[in-house]
Write a structure and sequence with these properties.
- The structure is a single chain.
- By secondary structure, the chain is an alpha/beta fold.
- The strands form two sheets. The chain has a six-stranded parallel sheet with strand order 5-4-3-2-1-9. Strands 6-7-8 form a three-stranded parallel sheet.
- Helix 2 crosses helix 10.
- The two termini are 23 Å apart.
- Bound molecules: 3-phosphoglyceric acid (3PG).
- Homotrimer.
- It is an enzyme of class 4 (lyase).
- One of its GO terms (molecular function) is 2-dehydro-3-deoxy-phosphogluconate aldolase activity.
Length: 208
């Protein structure tokens, strides 16, 4: 499925962010999310299993858009695109990294945590971005404050978000979705507990 940058925010109210240790788990995990009603997964490149996991999900699981997360260096975006990623996510953005993302051409959510960083992305024509690390950077009140001076920008806050505060973020007019690792906790991955992941996904999908 092809998506545009702004559409990444509409794929699901919650984007599960996962760092997999074993690419063999990728397909079962993605299918559990789909059964729970979640239409996307961000597989981070923090582990060597990240790229092969993206490759498997893109090839074998329908009804889910797989994004590649934790893109921090030029070159990674092209490798993620080659593996079949539908979009890219970065924790922040240097000029070099953003140029590289533009060159690859996939939709991306680049991370910002300050007003000036958001404005720099807006200057590049980008209106959908990640707010990271959300809780540590000021959380809901901070994001709400951005909607006055920067009314055209929409965000996917990530970092420190869970079932207790996700609704507060999703209620903001400038938030399209939230991201987080709470739907795919290490304990469920270690146990291969796909029913447990499906249950958490179902709760997350119902948040909005
Ligand atoms: C991310 O990269 O988006 C975060 O690590 C996810 O943050 P969380 O683990 O606090 O949900």
């Amino acid at each position: 499925m092809d998506v545009k940058a702004a559409e990444v925010l509409e794929l699901s109210p919650v984007v599960p962010v996962v760092a997999l240790d074993d690419a063999e788990q990728a397909v079962d995990l993605a299918r559990a999310l789909v059964r729970g009603g979640i239409g996307t997964i961000e597989v981070t490149l923090r582990t060597p299993a990240g790229l092969p996991a993206i490759e498997r999900i893109a090839a074998e699981v329908e009804d889910i858009v797989v994004g590649a997360g934790t893109i921090t260096e030029p070159g990674q975006a092209a490798r993620a695109a080659g593996a079949g990623a539908g979009y890219l996510v970065t924790p922040g953005g240097t000029d070099r990294l953003l140029d590289d993302l533009d060159e690859v051409g996939l939709p991306y959510l680049a991370g910002i945590s300050t007003v000036s960083e958001a404005m720099r992305l807006a200057e590049r024509g980008v209106s959908a971005m990640k707010f990271f690390p959300a809780e540590a950077s000021g959380g809901v009140p901070y994001l709400q404050s951005l909607s006055g001076p920067l009314p055209g920008l929409r965000f996917c806050p990530t970092g420190g978000i869970g079932p207790d505060n996700a609704r507060d973020y999703l209620a903001l007019s400038n938030v399209g979705c939230v991201g987080g690792s709470w739907i795919t906790p290490k304990r469920l991955l270690a146990a291969g507990d796909w029913g447990g992941v499906e249950a958490l996904a179902r709760e997350a999908a119902a948040l909005r």
